Amino acid sequence: MTVLVTGGAGYIGSHVVAALARAGMRALVLDDFSNSSRAVMPRLERLAGTHVPLVEGDVRDATLLRDTFARHPISAVVHCAGLKAVGESGERPLAYWDVNVNGSFRLAEVMGEAGVATLVFSSSATVYGQPERLPVDESAPLKPASVYGRTKRTVEDFLRDLAASNANWRIAILRYFNPAGAHPSALIGEAPRGRPNNLVPFLCRTAAGEFPELSIFGTDYPTPDGTGIRDYLHVDDLAEGHVAALRYLADHAGALTLNLGMGRGFSVLEVVAAFERACGRSVTKSFAPRRDGDIACVYADPARAQRVLGWSTSRDLDAICADAWRWQAAGGGYEKG
Ligand code: WQD
With a 6 A CB cut-off, is 69 part of the ligand 1 pocket? Predict the structure, then answer.
């Protein structure tokens, strides 16, 4: 089966392509390289041990999508292409609504025309906002507190409507908690452009001397050590969750919504300590005010993914930090391209 991975040159998408190859599935990458590098492609081929075809373009381009489905024997789609910075989404709402919602809409429309009914969608735990109960299971109310989270909830809604309208659709909606780390080969990893928003890439670049210190946003949260708690999961565990979802959809129609997380939380200070153990360096840190939009604590109840897919994380926080540091030490990015 050929799986179209939109955003397949990006952080999550590239790890999904590598996981598909490990599972003996062929991938076709669609990417416009607006937030990724062409240099990922030869590395993906090294990891996959085979050619990984590329369609360069924008997921909102219906003509390009139609041409892609006409030229390639696509039997399923993993849709990772999208804008994903929470803070930025508030500054560029139209871009986020256009790319994340119209892009998903165009893709679903062309899939329907082409008779390709299997879709795995990259959603996010930000659809929950600040949950009332922890751990968060899939029945928790959706109260996204950001433009980004609202775009993800909107796409989820229309995908569930689509599945309800026609029994042919096979859709998995995967709510990612906090993906982190890198493939152990250090060939692919997280390569945010400019100043990273996320904790782990910022930690990596601070330890590598690119930044003088890590600012810890908030030490007065109602948590054991006062810093924010999140559910970090290894990006390869996350990628393998996509493969498990595709296997499940091969035998099950309808829409399935799943939390993908470790099922426990770690505070910022706990992550920093684990990272310092992994890299053998102490990281200069300063304490700063809370970051707008941050919540105190969120972590997943991943029981449904375990029950339905037989999926759970297998890599711990130490592995996340070790693989993240190995990626950083190998350069932590892609040559220009
Ligand atoms: C984690 C913790 C920060 C940076 C976001 C998106 C989410 C998903 C993952 C897309 C928080 C603290 C961070 C720093 C810090 N992306 N922190 N100093 O905000 O939980 O989730 O990325 O799907 O949708 O919301 O991740 O890594 O930014 O923050 O103290 O320099 O680290 O306050 O407690 P977040 P994060």
Answer: no
User: With contact defined as beta carbons under 8 Å apart, do 208 and 292 qualify?
Assistant: no
Name the domain count of the chain. 1
164 domain-assigned: yes
Cα–Cα distances (Å) from 226 to 86, 126, 233, 287, 290, in that order, read 22, 21, 21, 11, 11
Residue 337 pLDDT = 42
- With contact defined as beta carbons under 8 Å apart, do 90 and 15 qualify? no
13-66, pLDDT tens digit by residue?
999 999 999 999 999 999 999 999 999 999 999 999 999 999 999 999 999 999
User: Does the beta carbon of 28 lie inside 6 Å of ligand 1?
Assistant: no
pLDDT of 241 reads 98
In the chain, which residues have pLDDT < 70? Answer: 336-337
Write down the pLDDT at residue 193. 87
The preferred substitution site among 130, 230, 232, 320 for testing ligand 1, maximizing ligand atoms within 8 Å of CB, is 230
pTM higher than 0.90 for the full model? yes
Query: Domain of 86: which CATH number?
Result: 3.40.50.720
The whole-number pLDDT of residue 336 equals 55
Alpha-carbon span 239 to 5, nearest angstrom: 12
Say if 22 falls within a structural domain. yes
Q: Is the peptide bond before 135 cis (omega within 30 degrees of 0)?
A: yes
Residue 206 placed within a domain: no
Domain that holds residue 173: 2-179+233-261
Would you say the CB of residue 198 lies under 6 angstroms from ligand 1? yes
140 is a domain residue: yes
Token duo for residue 122: 């990259």
